[in-house]
């Protein structure tokens, strides 16, 4: 096992530990949702230079004001995207789950990151160097369109999140988030699994951990859902939908 240094000019050098590939990196890339329709030439190009890296829980992948090194794809674990809020406090703005990608804005703009990322639990990523990503989108127009669509969808989610967390009450925020998770779930009939610990989810929703716990407890008492650790089973989607529009001025927590 060796260490691959991804240079961060402002904050120093961060070491993401290169690991022996758990599977063929090309095969792993082909299973990433945004790359499933990619042709052989594109996959070969991305796989050339791509590496599996391991990040311990809580460690940074890239820091604020660092220069981009490449595209990151989540193979296992999860990653939280962090930013400074208006009050100067760090908050979670997005969580990337297995199959998700991040770092693409830096790849295409070459600008220093204004945000930073941290592993949620032990996380394994695939790192694809900037030049390989740029070359791939240059020869694969459908991939370029899919990446553009993914970025636009992310921007829309962030806009929706800003609207919800700035004006919606605590219950409305939690209900909206659970419905979004439910919509993305691979098995709609099964329980939802929160992609990160509850304190991370609370930060994402601009709530205190205590407020999130109270809202989940109230929803459970009302028969809307059942909670067991990070597993949540929705009992009434109709009630959750009503909560998203109810009491918009409730305390944020």
From TrEMBL:
GO cellular component: cytosol
Keyword Transcription: yes
SUPFAM superfamilies membership: cAMP-binding domain-like (SSF51206), Winged helix' DNA-binding domain (SSF46785)
Keyword list, A-Z: DNA-binding, Transcription, Transcription regulation
HTH crp-type domain sequence ranges: 168-238
Molecular function terms, GO-annotated: DNA binding; DNA-binding transcription factor activity
Cyclic nucleotide-binding domain location: 34-117
Domain of life: Bacteria
PROSITE patterns: CNMP_BINDING_3 (PS50042), HTH_CRP_2 (PS51063)
Name assigned to this protein: Nitric oxide-responding transcriptional regulator Dnr
């Amino acid at each position: 096992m060796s260490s691959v240094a991804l240079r961060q000019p402002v904050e120093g050098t961060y070491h993401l530990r290169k690991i022996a590939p758990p599977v063929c990196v090309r095969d792993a890339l082909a299973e990433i949702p945004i790359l499933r329709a990619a042709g052989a030439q594109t996959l070969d190009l991305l796989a050339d230079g791509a590496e599996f890296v391991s990040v311990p829980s809580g460690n940074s992948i890239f820091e604020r004001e660092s220069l981009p090194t490449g595209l990151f794809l989540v193979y296992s674990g999860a990653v939280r995207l962090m930013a400074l809020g208006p009050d100067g406090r760090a908050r979670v703005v997005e969580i990337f789950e297995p199959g998700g990608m991040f770092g693409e804005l830096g790849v295409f703009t070459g600008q220093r990151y204004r945000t930073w990322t941290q592993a949620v639990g032990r996380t394994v990523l695939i790192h694809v160097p900037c030049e390989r990503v740029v070359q791939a989108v240059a020869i694969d127009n459908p991939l370029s369109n899919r990446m553009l669509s993914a970025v636009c969808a992310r921007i829309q989610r962030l806009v929706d999140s800003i609207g919800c967390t700035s004006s919606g009450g605590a219950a409305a925020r939690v209900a909206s988030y659970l419905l979004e998770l439910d919509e993305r779930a691979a098995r709609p009939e099964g329980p939802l699994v929160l992609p990160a610990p509850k304190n991370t989810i609370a930060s994402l929703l601009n709530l205190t951990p205590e407020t999130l716990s109270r809202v989940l407890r109230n929803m459970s008492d009302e028969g809307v859902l059942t909670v067991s650790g990070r597993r949540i089973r929705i009992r009434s989607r109709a009630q959750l939908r009503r909560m998203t529009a109810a009491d918009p001025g409730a305390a944020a927590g």
